[in-house]
């Protein structure tokens, strides 16, 4: 509160000039009128040389500091393994799985995201060939077909997913 003012102090202001100590600053609480008066006479640049003022007013001031990259090529970088131990291999396993999902085929043929989703539906790796694709498709159709499981229509959705995945991969350039 400001001396001689009866209005409640709702707005925090820095301590008075010259009130320095080793403790954290004891803020003043001012009413609306007094905080407006304080803000009107506040000068950020008081005590600065013209060069310091110019440096503070540069449009890119503060942007020249180097910052860490958040992601590289859409995937997180692996953590620095030397910094900690991972006895359950939780982080390493997760990273290896991500790398396996994004891996290129050994024959260099490209895989789209749709191809990768279809391979996951069929339970195949990225390096599967046309023969493995056909074999796995046959196995899953036999497993989920209603004639094979007593007319149970509970597997109908899975069968449709398998057929759709096979149709995507059959037309894919990676399996041509």
Number of strands: 2
Protein structure class? mainly alpha
The CATH homologous superfamily of the largest domain is named DnaJ domain
- The rough form would be described as elongated
Strand arrangement across the biggest beta sheet: 1-2
Poorly predicted segments: none
Secondary-structure element order, N to C: EEHHHHHH
Major sheet: size, sense and barrel closure? Answer: 2 strands, antiparallel
Domain module count: 3
Average pLDDT figure: 80
Task: Describe the structure in your own words.
With 176 residues, the chain is mostly helical. The protein has three domains: 11-57, no CATH class; 70-102, no CATH class; 113-175, DnaJ domain (Helix Hairpins, Orthogonal Bundle), CATH 1.10.287.110. Helices cover 40% and strands 3% of the residues. The protein has six helices and two strands, in the order E-E-H-H-H-H-H-H. The protein has helices at residues 32-41, 50-57, 90-101, 113-122, 130-144, 156-170, and strands spanning 11-13, 28-30. Strands 1-2 form a two-stranded antiparallel ribbon. Helix 4 (113-122) packs across helix 6 and helix 5 runs antiparallel to helix 6 (156-170). The longest helix has 15 residues, at 130-144. The mean pLDDT is 80.
